[in-house]
Amino acid sequence: MDPLELSQALIRCPSVTPTDAGALDVLAGALEGLGFTCHRLPFTGDGSHEVQNLYARIGDDAPNFCFAGHTDVVPVGDAGNWSVDPFEALVKDGRLYGRGASDMKTAIAAFTAATARFLSEHGPDFGGSISLLITGDEEGAAINGTVKVLDWLQDQHQVIDACLVGEPTNTDTLGDTIKIGRRGSMNSVLTVQGTSGHAAYPHLADNPVERLVKMLSAVLDKPLDDGTEHFQPSTTVVTTIDVGNPVANVIPARAEARINVRFNDLHTGAGVETLLRRRLDDIGGDYDLDARVSGEPFLFPPGPLSNLVAGAVEKATGKRPEFSTAGGTSDARFIKDHCPVCEFGLTNETAHKADENAKIADIHMLADIYLAVLDGFFDGAG
Question: CA-CA distance, 43 to 20, in Å (whole number)?
Fold first, then answer.
């Protein structure tokens, strides 16, 4: 099985969250050809859109090694910023172009190609099981995706013993980074209420813009922490400030800002919210903070799984990868409650950008690395 050809077939499905556009049909067809049993798992409800998911497994015995990832992709944005059709899957100058080339349809293709090679070398009786857990909602609300597939697995009494997530983890070159955890993430909407009035008579009004600026300074000026052994310092970022005031001589009645906090294992989401409210209260006045946590920080300290993946990476690339927890959230935040998990995929240099692409040589090398992971895992299990 050629991981490049399968990558192209997946990219040609415009599976922008939550649309599947046939991507899981393409993958299920490839897996069923290898002898996998595929379960299509659509979930809906809980205030979110319907999502198509796939759980595929070959073998009935333990241990069960799982590859996890997502076929959904972010929107292309302004198509005029692309030099190619985002869903043509064009090969040019040694690279594969298209939405999902980095994040992360190529990794799914590499999972499948590596498994095909493993089965051709070892046959179906390799002393365990291999599975793929693939969602169509990682880039979206993540409500009807991986978390519900994991619940379904529990209901079916199916156990995953180790999981490798194929998110693009590398910063500069393939093999430089393995993710062993992720920071937590909290998005907040800060709304400051005031009293509108004439700009010439500010003493007769209560300007929410001025208090908002003071509140944001209080939130930003003092770092949350200095980092920990495995985590960089927590970060607070203001992503937008909105007043909606079309004129210059009127003091508005309200002002709003959105704040994102990426926090390490010194904090919980509730603790970060409490800290922010304390700083806002020091400024005073009428305000509302709507804070929502999309994921708590987690860490799987270096151990058998991450060391196995690191050894496979070193064997293929000649370099020992760094263990990191940097970057955004991923569905590993759900999987870590079920089994050991780490993340390794392609470079993230062009993820979510126009002209997203991946080196063809890296796609093939990634399949080699995943094959080495399977060989090492089942050798160790035996």
Answer: 13
CA distances from 11 to 97, 101, 254, 295 (A): 9, 7, 44, 28
At 47, the amino acid letter reads: G
Query: 137, 138, 139, 356: which one is catalytic?
Result: 138
Active site residue 265: no
Distance CA 373, CA 110 (A): 12
CA distance 4 to 113: 9
Q: Three-class SS of residue 5?
A: helix
Contact 113, 3 (CB under 8 A): yes
Query: DSSP string covering 89-108, please?
Result: --EETTEEESTTTTTTHHHH
| Both tokens assigned to 34 | 């290898």
* Buried-state track 299-309, b at ≥16 Cβ within 10 A, e below 16: bbeeeebbebb
What is the reported pTM? 0.90
- In this structure, is the dihedral angle defined by the CA atoms of residues 109, 113, 114 and 115, taken in order, positive or negative? positive
Q: What are phi and psi of 260, to 5 degrees?
A: -115, 130
Q: Could you tell me the strand order of the sheet in which 162-165 lies?
A: 37-40, 54-58, 129-135, 64-70, 162-165, 341-343, 177-179, 322-324
First-to-last alpha carbon distance for the chain, in angstroms, is: 26
DSSP string, 159-212: ---EEEE----BSSSTTSEEE-EE-EEEEEEEEEE-B-EETT-GGGSB-HHHHH
State yes or no: is 138 an active-site residue.
yes
In this structure, how many other beta carbons lie within 10 angstroms of the beta carbon of residue 74? 16
* Low-confidence residues of the chain: pLDDT under 50: none
**C-alpha–C-alpha distance, residues 152 and 158, integer Å:** 9
C-alpha 83/C-alpha 86 separation (Å) is 9
Residue 345 has which token pair? 């995929």
Q: Give the three-class secondary structure for 24.
A: helix
CA 346 to chain CA centroid, nearest Å: 13
The reported pLDDT for the residue numbered 235 is: 96
Query: Which residue among the candidates 20, 72, 273, 362 is catalytic per the annotation?
Result: 72
Which pLDDT value is given to residue 20?
98
For residue range 59-76, list pLDDT tens digits in order.
999 999 999 999 999 999
